[in-house]
DNA sequence: TATTGTTATACTCTATAACTATA
DNA sequence: TATAGTTATAGAGTATAACAATA
């Protein structure tokens, strides 16, 4: 936080001037670093959020997929089933989520939001959209779109119905 | 793993067909999902690695920055100082890393690889390069380069000396 | 007074594996 | 037999804060 930019040219070991070597071009490494940087940016903008990011995400996905299986949601969010059990139960205990067993497959557990969960989400959704935009403010709109497309590819999500891969110049 | 693609058109609640709503376009969310997917891909290709990815990364960075401060390395890798202490010590106990206090600033701790650490790295580096490439095999070479550039921007790393942002068409 | 690192506690999430209930 | 979920244990890493040594 200090203004120091003065006498640090002597040892070439000044902080933050770390050379990452091969890692400077490693997508998997940069994926991790960028993700951490993005989350830190979000927390810097909005400290003291009433719910954790993971909880806000879960609420969104449950509202958009009412009556989906707990395990199926865990899988898209890359949450381990053993942890999902505790996670969902803690949301249930706080009155945000309902769990119930459907009669046709009594092994499974389906999820729904409670009225309280829906109420919280109404405030959360716009805030989340804004935070994402602010955390990515170093990107132009086009770069943002590009990044989303590339990340979806890496994550194995289907392409969005926009920006066709190759206009093909036919016709 | 089953071939089932038959009678699942009834409830529109078939697994994995989860709709992520807003999150489908959220860069910060996709950053997390893509990162997890990439790491899972790496572990799927190479289970039973002798060192953890975080440990392999640390060795690389120490070799590329001998005598760098422990805290400075923690900062680029987004490792908390309190954890870095334990992390480095465990590497030291395994004979891979050396810690020493320089006489000119006795608050700090500088890091170096041991001969054993260097030996391990000689095998690790090529394997890491290959794993990164394989985990990103869904991308073309150009997409990979693009992704690296965008991730560096998000992570706050300076641009690589290639692919100038705008050729400017001057001259 | 600010910086560097250490220690300690609580908490989140993963890794593994065993286990139950249901299909 | 396979699938969905639960439980338990160990470990990684974060969040926080207090602390010591040095600058």
TrEMBL record, chains A, B:
Membrane-spanning intervals of the chain: none
Highest taxon listed in the record's lineage: Bacteria
SUPFAM superfamilies for this protein: Winged helix' DNA-binding domain
Domain (HTH marR-type) ranges: 44-144
Stored Pfam families: MarR
UniProt cross-references to PANTHER family, sorted A to Z: TRANSCRIPTIONAL REGULATOR (PTHR33164:SF95), TRANSCRIPTIONAL REGULATOR, MARR FAMILY (PTHR33164)
Protein name per the record: Transcriptional repressor MprA
Lineage start: Bacteria, Pseudomonadati, Pseudomonadota, Alphaproteobacteria, Hyphomicrobiales
């Amino acid at each position: 936080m200090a203004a120091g930019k003065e006498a640090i040219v002597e040892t070439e070991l000044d902080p933050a001037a770390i050379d990452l070597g091969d890692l400077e071009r490693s997508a998997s490494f940069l994926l991790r670093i960028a993700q951490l940087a993005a989350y830190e940016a979000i927390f810097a903008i909005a400290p003291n959020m009433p719910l954790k990011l993971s909880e806000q995400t879960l609420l969104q996905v449950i509202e958009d997929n009412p009556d989906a299986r707990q395990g199926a949601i865990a899988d898209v969010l890359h949450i381990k089933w053993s942890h999902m059990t505790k996670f969902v139960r803690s949301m249930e205990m706080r009155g945000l989520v309902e769990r119930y067993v459907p009669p046709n497959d009594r092994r499974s557990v389906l999820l729904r939001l409670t009225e309280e969960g829906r109420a919280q989400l109404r405030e959360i959704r716009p805030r989340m959209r804004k935070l994402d935009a602010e955390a990515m403010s170093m990107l132009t709109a086009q770069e943002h779109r590009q990044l989303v497309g590339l990340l979806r590819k890496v994550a194995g999500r289907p392409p969005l119905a926009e920006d066709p891969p190759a206009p093909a110049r036919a016709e």
